[in-house]
Here is the input.
Amino acid sequence: RRVLLLGEGNFSFSAALCGAQGTGHVVATCYESEEEAAGRGGAARSIRRLRDSGAEVLFSVDCTKLKEHFLPGEREFDRIYFNFPHCGRKAGVVKNRQLLAGFFHSCTEVLAQEGEIHVALCNGQGGTPADQPRREWHNSWQIVPVAAAAGFILSDIHPFKAEAVDGYKCTGYRSQDKSFCVDGALNHIFTRSTAPLCFTPMSCKTQLGSQNVSFQVPQVLVDKINRGFLEENSSHPVRTTKEKLSAGLSQVFPLQNSSSCLPLLHQAHPHGVCHSSIFWITLSPGEAPGTEKLSQGLANTDLFSHFGQDTEENVQEVCPIPKQFYLRPSLLPHAQAIIKKRAFSPGTLQVFSGPVFRKCRITPHSMPVFHEMLVVLAVSRGTENSCIQMLVDNIQTTMNSLHQGIPGIKPSISLQEATSLGAELNDFAAFEQQLGEIQRFLCVGTEPEPSGSCVGVVRTAPEEFQSHELVVVSASLNLDLLAMLLCGISDWRMLWTRDRRFLRQFPQGELRLFKSFSLYPPSYVHDVSFWVPDGEEFDEVAFHTLARKVSAEMVVSIQLRDSFQQPGTGRRSLCYRVTFQSCDRALGCREAAEMQLRFREELQQHLGVTLR
Here is the structure.
């Protein structure tokens, strides 16, 4: 490895590092001239030791202009150390922030793709929660957002143990040959962030009835469609969760996987489902199915409407409507279609799985796309209650065994009556209620929230799908939420990250406790207030969806701060607080401000509001 050390005072740290086994090629530098540096106590001895060991020693190196000091073939370092940077003398926090900013931007040109930057700071300077005691934010060096502006994330932080470095002596207090206190000092380790996503328009091909069609993917879903999390060669924790649940269920029931060729698009309006929760799709020009082909495929695509209501006579009536197609929000209608055709074996557990799409508000556990696992079982009438209990007991047993296999996770699994959750319903459970009556909610909690989050629902099929002999029961599970709770993932967006460090933590077939590679990500708060169009109900879900689109899922929270109605005119004004934060990549202050400006423009254009 090639190691670069910057801002060395007496070169004692470099000399100790150079003597360590396996360090690699060391390049030690300082800002002062050789004459100035050699005058510090012990520096001359350390410099000789470095050169005798084959290390390079450079002087008058400006840490904000690193590219200028190295030839093109020598600019890639695997590790860069900068211990206790300081502008010198009595420079304040603002000047030292500027020094760090110039340093991090300079590092982009000399750091290897998977290299590390180590910055040691005195206690309190960094401004992270790891500093104890923690300074007021304005009085810290704000190292994480400063690094984020250059494209780096804080991946690790640990105490700087000066006593563990043989021969190390800190020096340079106020630009003098004096030591300073390093008790409680912290070493901040930064790595490169993945590049910002570029959302170019994307077209997707799928089957609609008996015809192949294409459509433009909604921008908010461009990086989430066709990701293949459930494919056979995937090591994603969502797939592992599904496979382990299936294995547990197969111990009690014969199991049949029915997930292949499930249509991605549906036609007409979903019965009982809120219009604003749906991702409506317009087919690419010239690809709308003809009347004959559409009528042949209605059984497969018009699944949410009352069965039998759409006939060939009214197909022509619905065809010209532009927003008649939508991405599937649930797999339940596919199961109901199979039930209606009696294409199932009583006593055999039918398993459906795949991504489903729902517009929703922004919260850490509300996702516009997730992977649903739907299990359906036809049982003899009169045995449905015992079969439901057997099904749920098996899911609970499997979940408990998965929890026990992951150190650090303490599960709390409960089955709750449909009437007991009330206002505690999360977005998943609330949407499921729109699809039909629910008998039980399956909730999984982990400390410090043992009350649990709803990850599944259990229901019996409506009477129209039953027979005199058989009753159909089903359980719908949110695999993404389950994987999050099992692996200790606090933000759903992490499941969809493009950063390879996520999947590296999950060998195929294993679930482990997730360790974040982006610590203390900076957040940026902006307010937006506007007048709502007269006589119109404000669509808050559309507001949240627009924020997702504009920010590329960088908005972590939206809170209503104020609602005001103007006396006399009756005009209504709303004020929302929008918090921008990424869970997996660098987000700088300027980038967040640009997102806020685009958000304001899009609000006027798409929601018709008047900004204040």
